[in-house]
TrEMBL record:
This is PadR family transcriptional regulator. Residues 25-39 have a biased composition (Gly residues). Residues 1-43 are annotated as: Disordered. PANTHER family: TRANSCRIPTIONAL REGULATOR YQJI. It comes from the Bacteria. Residues 1-24 have a biased composition (Basic residues). InterPro entries: Tscrpt_reg_PadR_N, WH-like_DNA-bd_sf, WH_DNA-bd_sf. Residues 54-123 form the Transcription regulator PadR N-terminal domain.
Length: 187
């Protein structure tokens, strides 16, 4: 599933024999472009690094795909939430590689690391640890931005409540927020 056969007959995952998508350049995919899909921001990991992160999470305890998404969001302090379109094909690849097994758990699949997956992590422990450290790094600039965004939200809510449903005041708030959004989008 999701695999390709090379001209030598070997089976490869959806990202080619070396973890690179055959039509998108290097390991970051998309010819080195660092932006995520449709405005999701820069990628935290390339496809190859994500494989190690997901496998490490499954090594810690068996997980469903949705649990992996939520755990990555939590560990990054909300700075990174992978899309299902990134996680589920990767789980299928790890399954094809023999690094995880999947068992039915209601209408979900519970992924468990295999001995082959454990050996793969052990062989790449230094890299796995470096990637994990990057995920855990606090990003002070991003945290500062998040705090300001929260202040703007709170001010808008408070002023909207204080306006007593005054249409002119509500329109002023909307206009300020629209202008701020447009100014930021224009950067």
């Amino acid at each position: 599933m999701f695999g390709f056969k090379s001209h030598h007959g070997r089976h490869h995952g959806p990202h080619g024999p070396h973890g690179h998508h055959p039509h998108h350049g290097g390991p970051g995919g998309h010819g080195g472009h660092q932006g995520g899909p449709r405005g999701r921001g820069p990628k935290m990991f390339d496809a190859g690094a994500m494989r190690y992160v997901v496998l490490q999470l499954i090594a810690e305890k068996p997980r469903h795909g949705y649990e992996i998404i939520k755990e990555l969001e939590q560990r990054s302090g909300g700075a990174y939430t992978p899309s299902p379109g990134a996680i589920y094909p990767l789980l299928a690849l790890l399954l094809d590689m023999g690094h995880v097994s999947a068992s039915a758990d209601g209408n979900k699949k519970l992924h468990t690391i295999t001995p082959e997956g454990e050996a793969f992590l052990a062989e790449n422990r230094q890299l796995v640890d470096a990637i994990q450290a990057r995920l855990a790094e606090p990003d002070e600039q991003r945290e500062g931005l998040r705090a300001v965004m929260h202040e703007v939200k709170q001010a808008a809510i408070e002023q909207a409540r204080a306006s007593n449903h005054n249409p002119e005041r509500l329109e002023q708030i909307r206009a300020i927020l629209r202008k701020a959004a447009a100014d930021i989008a224009a950067l």
